[in-house]
Design brief:
Largest sheet: 8 strands, mixed
Structural class: alpha/beta
Shape: globular
Strand content: 5-15%
């Protein structure tokens, strides 16, 4: 996947508008109100000026639309103000508006009009959804920008946090005066105020989130070290069963955040927050941490450590122990040993390990091969460094399980795993790796499930283990249990895009396409450049018959995946020949590309051929590649029984015969 710098997303200032109660209107009333709303919007000074300068994009929706301005966050707000004033002459036209600034990407519509994708659009709609008729709501980001100007400051009225889809939250500000807007508190906020008296998921007193540590080193390349220290302390705390610890993948979004500690804690569902900073110079390290009670924003404990690099494990252990003590967490003997462990005495090996973990966050983006090299070098420097073996094994297993790397990588994964467990059989990540080896490589589901459960026991706060386990439960027909695991994972890792992506795919497998789309939308709000999320979003749209939307999402996926020419081809083919012909034409091009890769000796998973032939409508070849997919040890083989993409083959008796050859110990 290309880096964000390679993707042509720009910041757009979005005004999202809709007509309240539109669906209850008669057809002719809907037409009249939409026409009047368009006239009002087009008559505003901001609309006309931006259109004349080519700085305006429009996205029509059934009951309103979005206007995207490219110059300033003031422009959509001023436009909303004008619209609100004009609407006073039309009391039957009940409209609400939301404004947000965020990443957007212009796509040429198949009707030669502008279509727009990106989190900026989605977030503006979420902001609008928090309001009622007459409201002009702004995201906290836009309000913060406007607060710098005297003309806007008196008009901004903070509403606080609004919960939107899937437990995500937004800071929202109401814009109004005597002449425009709606001064009433939105019903959604009133309902949430009432709900706060009886929270559905109470915040546990023994709960904590570690915000990303600030890198104070003169060498900014040491950012990996600051991140690594935060993650290592978090890992130690996660071993304590009496604590709820939020995963790093969710706290990362608050790096350099200007939000208050109480607001951050509320979004993460914790009672305490740990802030910290790290300064590294040669072999000297300074770590400063402070534990904060989020309810009253007061310090519970703070400490500064000035140590040699070799003593960093003692620092991590001491911080974890003092946090546990401050939160009155009960520790077993095994947990005390776990948080005081010293996995290596070689500081160079440890730094290489932290660099590998830091790079791992890019998954298999260009340069990802460096992860393997870092882990291998760390092992060479210290052959008894168990976590480094887990990292190396995970590199091979993750790639093989997802068919990014060929199956020949499985033995290397298993060898590294066995060595890690010989050195330390209490590492939760080792059991997560073991679950993958047992399931995708050896196809032994009972052994994999035991590994999942052991990993969750060793690290009760691991959202990653739980959401992976949840997916596997669904693959084996235990849907309710799987969804329960996903729900638990969301509490531990609410803002991890991968979790929402997994959850969306699970609902797709269960034929809940609306639910799947909601999860994919959240994924893209959190990570707009996620090509896989766009692809899965398109799959769900196709199943619902939303063909234009499917093409739009697939084009976004192709563009973000480094294939803009394929995206352009698909869009043009759809405009010229319709959906089915366009999909077949693209599949033919993709099949040619797969053959070229195979001819060069590159590994191409059978699943890629299978899906290409399905798109071509060639069932005979699809069945041939279905059999080859069954043989390959990756996760695609395990989804054959439930993936809706394969429904077109299920009526053929050969389908069941081929799938029956998939031997999994159950």
């Amino acid at each position: 996947m290309p880096s964000e710098a390679d993707v042509k997303f720009e910041i757009g200032h979005v005004l999202f508008i809709d007509i309240v109660g539109y669906s209850k209107l008669l057809i002719h009333e809907q037409t009249e109100q939409l026409q009047k709303l368009r006239q009002i919007a087009r008559a505003t000074k901001q609309f006309r000026a931006a259109q004349a300068e080519g700085k305006l994009l429009r996205l029509p929706t059934g009951d309103g639309g979005a206007l995207v301005f490219s110059d300033s966050p003031e422009t959509p707000v001023a436009c909303a103000l004008e619209i609100s004033k004009a609407l006073k002459n039309y009391p039957d036209l009940r409209v609400r508006m939301g404004v947000h600034s965020g990443p957007v990407k212009e796509v040429t519509d198949l009707n030669e009009q502008a279509n727009i994708a990106g989190a900026g659009i989605n977030m503006a709609q979420r902001v609008m959804d928090c309001g009622d008729a007459g409201h002009i709501l702004l995201s906290k980001r836009v309000a913060d920008d406007l607060e710098q100007y005297g003309r806007w400051r008196p008009l901004l009225h903070d509403l606080g946090i609004c919960e939107v889809k899937h437990g995500a939250t937004l800071g929202v500000v109401n814009l109004y005066s005597d002449e425009f807007g709606n001064p009433e508190t939105p019903k959604k906020f009133k309902a949430e105020e009432a709900a706060e008296k009886k929270p559905s998921v109470p915040i546990l007193r023994k709960s904590i989130a570690l915000l990303p540590f600030e890198n104070l080193s003169e060498d900014k390349a040491n950012a990996y070290f600051a991140d690594g220290i935060q993650e290592e302390i978090l890992t130690r705390l996660s071993r304590i069963g009496d604590l709820k610890v939020i995963s790093r993948t969710s706290t990362q979004r608050f790096k350099n955040s200007l939000e208050s500690i109480p607001d951050i804690a509320k979004q993460l569902g914790v009672a305490t927050i740990l802030e910290g900073s790290v300064r590294k110079a040669a072999d000297q390290v300074r770590v400063h941490v402070q534990l904060i009670d989020a309810e009253n924003d007061s310090h519970l404990w703070a400490e500064r450590y000035d140590r040699k690099l070799i003593d960093i494990f003692a620092v991590e252990s001491d911080i974890a122990a003092k946090i546990a003590d401050a939160l009155h967490a009960k520790l077993t003997g095994a947990e005390r040993r776990a948080i005081s462990s010293q996995p290596t005495k070689n500081t160079e090996a440890y730094q290489l390990y932290l660099k590998a973990r830091h790079q791992w966050r890019n998954f298999f983006a260009p340069g990802y091969e460096q992860v393997r090299k870092y882990f291998q070098r760390a092992i060479e420097l210290d052959p008894s460094f168990a976590p480094a073996y887990v990292g190396l094994g995970s590199y091979h297993a993750f790639g093989a399980a997802n068919a990014i790397l060929p199956p020949a990588h499985w033995p290397a994964a298993e060898t590294a795993l066995q060595k890690a467990l010989e050195l330390d059989d209490t590492l939760a990540d080792a059991y997560h790796l073991l679950a993958g080896v047992e399931l995708y490589y050896k196809r032994n589901w009972p052994a994999a499930e035991r590994a999942f459960l052991r990993g969750a026991e060793l690290n009760p706060s691991s959202g990653e283990i739980r959401h992976h386990y949840g997916l596997c439960l669904v693959l084996f027909g235990r849907s309710e249990e799987g969804l329960a695991q996903i729900a638990l994972a969301k509490q531990l890792d609410p803002f991890f895009p991968g979790l929402h992506l997994f959850a969306g795919r699970i609902l797709f497998f269960l034929r809940d396409y609306d639910g799947a789309i909601a999860y994919f939308t959240t994924t893209l709000e959190l990570q707009p450049t996620n090509a896989v999320a766009h692809e899965h979003f398109g799959d769900a749209c196709e199943r619902k018959g939303m063909l234009h939307e499917a093409i739009t999402q697939w084009c976004a996926s192709l563009t973000l995946g480094g294939q803009p020419e394929q995206a352009q081809f698909l869009e043009q083919a759809f405009a010229a020949s319709g959906f089915d012909a366009a999909v077949r034409a693209l599949a033919q091009r993709q099949l040619q590309h797969l053959n070229e890769r195979s001819a060069r000796g590159e590994y191409v998973p059978a699943w890629n051929y299978l899906t290409a032939y399905l798109r071509l409508g060639d069932k005979e070849q699809a069945l041939v590649w279905l059999a080859k997919t069954v043989e390959e040890p990756n996760w695609f083989a395990l989804q054959l029984k439930i993936n809706p993409i394969l429904d077109v083959l299920r009526s053929d008796p050969r389908f069941d015969e081929i799938v029956a050859t998939l031997t999994v110990k159950n």
